């Protein structure tokens, strides 16, 4: 599994370089980052070519013209809104990569130092990385195969480039989300190690018998020093999470809008395939099967991404819960140890751990529930409008 995770990270890096998402180089042997002329020129050219292909494929392909001839006005509007917003969101996300390139490099270096300090943290999230990369790759592969099969009668070099541009658009979105996913998973793994260390410290402190002797005082001072280090590491993880959220906030909002529109459009398209069967009469059975698998993988991929954030919040909540065990300590502990516990508790209360974007959007279960409810409501609205007017 370790080798698979390593290759997943390598593929993610080269995929980012190939699509222009990463506009700087990383030395895979040393982990050092550097901005080179070649990386800058290639990323700029790749993004310019992709943008041209996106616009051309959206408005000028024969496949879309033939498809629109068998659809109603609502279908065309939904499709165009999805396509245009996906392009705009990807373009805005890539633009933020250029504007904040130095911050991305500093953020990467911070995670590299975190990994060197806690290399065993990867043991707690390597399975999630593999699953995430599997579903992201599966959705892109199925999307490409479906496009090739449906456009088999019109296959030209221009058509193939157009299909690749659509897959590349999905790849850019998946690449950005995967980078954020790996960063959140890394913080979560470090948090798990921190919780284990804190739990061990609390058990040792709870077993202390208050005595005014040298061994007891030395043990309390030793525990206070360890708790100070735990508090410092927790503060560093919180600050790193805040930097991560601030650096990715524009991209994640763009990706959220893209996923939201895709989900609403997907629900409506599934309804349309049932109502307007003539749209899929000439589709091979393999395309219908791949389409069903694509929707399943798409929603599972989104759920895994959201659950990764929820799991990080749960791990922090576990740390706060562990600190409440301090009330079980026997009275009479050393004053320095008591003050260290109080200082840590006060820091946790003053600086709550949150995944927040633009200071108003929290990535938590309540927000996720609200978005899912909104997606279902808007999907039902589209279906009702279709049934009433077409």
Describe it.
The protein is an all-alpha fold and 390 residues long. It has one domain (2-389). It contains 11 helices and 4 strands. It has helices at 2-19, 37-60, 62-68, 73-99, 101-117, 126-150, 157-206, 214-275, 285-323, 335-350, 365-389; strands spanning 25-26, 33-34, 356-357, 361-362. The longest helix has 62 residues, at 214-275.
The low-confidence runs, each spanning 5 or more residues with pLDDT under 50, are 61-65
- Radius of gyration, whole Å: 25 Å
In the sheet with the most strands, the strands line up as 1-2
**Count of DSSP E strands?**
4
Number of helices: 11
Question: For this entry, what is the oligomeric state of its chains?
Answer: single chain
Give the proportion of residues in helices: over 70%
Q: Compute the separation of the termini in Å.
A: 52 Å
* Bulk shape: elongated
The total domain count is 1
Beta-strand fraction estimate: under 5%
Order of helices and strands: HEEHHHHHHHHHEEH
Biggest sheet architecture: 2 strands, antiparallel
Task: Please tell me the overall pLDDT.
Answer: 83
Secondary-structure-derived class: mainly alpha
Short key terms for the protein model shown above:
390 residues, two-stranded antiparallel ribbon, 79% helix
Short overview:
The chain is mainly alpha-helical and 390 residues long. The chain is built from eleven helices and four strands, in the order αββαααααααααββα.
